Amino acid sequence: MESISVLDMFKIGVGPSSSHTLGPWKAAQTFLQAISKKTEQVKRIEVQLYGSLAKTGIGHGTDVAILMGLSGYDPETVDVDQIEKTVSHIRQKKQLQLAGEITIQFDPDAHLIFLKDEILPFHPNGLRFLCEFDDCSLQKETYFSVGGGFVVQEGEDDRSESEDVLLPYPINSAADISSYCNETGLPISGIVLENEKSWRSEQETRDAVMDIWNVMSNCIYRGCHTAETYLPGGLRVMRRAARLNNRYLPEQSYDNYQEWSEVIRKGGQDFSYIQNWVSCFALAVNEENASFGRIVTAPTNGAAGVIPAVLQYLVTFKNDYSQDVVFRFMCTSSEIGSIFKKRATISAAMGGCQAEIGVSSSMAAAGLTECLGGTVDQCLMAAEIAMEHHLGMTCDPIGGLVQIPCIERNAMGAIKAITACHLALQSEPKDAKVSLDGVVDTMWETAQNMNSKYKETSDGGLAVNIPISLSEC
Ligand code: SF4
């Protein structure tokens, strides 16, 4: 059974897409490792992109990710403000510093090949690295970006990097969670923590999860304070979070994230006020995501705003901030996401937007429910409700950019998660007609039946029905 750590589900990286940016970037890094013994003998590299990566790769920054990955940068640590400069330098000079070590000729227009009419059998997000060495020998490596920044090499199973760890509580379904929680008396986050101890100490896990939350909360804060400018890509989508922040907090002064959160908290508990802020938190994250900002996959980049928005809602409006609350929220939501990855998909190229925003909303609903005192069954019920009302949602980003409908869709996913949580908290799970496992299986069946034009190809839906002139996009 696949073992997925909370640190696999939440990866620190760069926007705008986990499958089209982070995954290809990691594939390039893996490719560099594969040729590391012969890096100095590399004569020529060509990268072929297939399927969804080819169709929406430009809008999703796949080209940028591969150039940065081949240049030896790590998405977790790269200075995101230097990405544009680095890439334009490569484009101008038509050469890159392979692994940061040797200069090779690389013209992105000629050596990054978008094969829009070809698809590799295993997954729609395929990419192939072809390398020629000085002695004319060739090496070919094929990878698949399977969603959420997870990458699989051709011939391998779709399993996480942590697969070889044996867990005390192996989980493949909501029924497994329920049974372990009943047996031990632990909440979902408690079971997750016991499993995480198989990878590292409890303190290391707690520290790593707090690092992840710090990236998320910084992202919210940055997005709420970045000047109103057009997002990159040519759609002329204006950033809104900073404008909303100014509107909601007129003439308020603060100097950092903590003070800002406190000012918001003091604004009260009016429904509209809270709803406005939840949407603003989500917009802020996804505007940063669309701008190649520092992002945490949750479980993907396109859906990166839902979980931070709901967690920020929790610590601002429902709970005194504590590291333990954040930790429990993240652990519980991670386990729900891993069930979707194991039994269905978290890749929009496989399942449409239900696999991204739907999964993130389901994850957030469960995390919030546990932290608001819900029972295990209420957490699972909240996760089920949130996904049930995202079933069938297509992925049809306009211009292939992770902007419309993606940015607002995160606000909707966050609000649905909160509604699902409160519905579950007021319900008797034993009376529910639909189980979480039933909805996961339904999501997967829906994914398999969904027309491929609605799976991150921009061949259908909003992407073709909203008229945008070529000069605009
Ligand atoms: S429509 Fe949904 S799945 Fe598609 S890119 Fe946007 S957020 Fe991701």
Structure in a nutshell:
The protein is 49% helix and 10% strand. The protein has helices at 6-9, 18-34, 51-56, 62-70, 83-93, 108-111, 174-184, 188-196, 202-223, 241-248, 257-265, 271-290, 306-318, 323-343, 348-351, 357-371, 376-388, 406-425, 436-449, 462-465; strands at residues 12-14, 42-50, 95-98, 102-105, 112-115, 126-133, 138-147, 150-153, 294-296.
Can you give a write-up of this model?
With 473 residues, the chain is of the alpha+beta class. It folds into two domains: 18-153, D-3-phosphoglycerate dehydrogenase, domain 3 (60s Ribosomal Protein L30, Chain: A, 2-Layer Sandwich), CATH 3.30.1330.90; 174-464, no CATH class. Helix content is 49%, strand content 10%. A five-stranded mixed beta sheet has the order 5-2-6-7-8. A two-stranded antiparallel ribbon has the order 1-9. The chain has a two-stranded antiparallel ribbon with strand order 3-4. Strand 3 (95-98) and strand 4 form a beta hairpin. The protein is globular, with a radius of gyration of 22 Å. The mean pLDDT is 95.
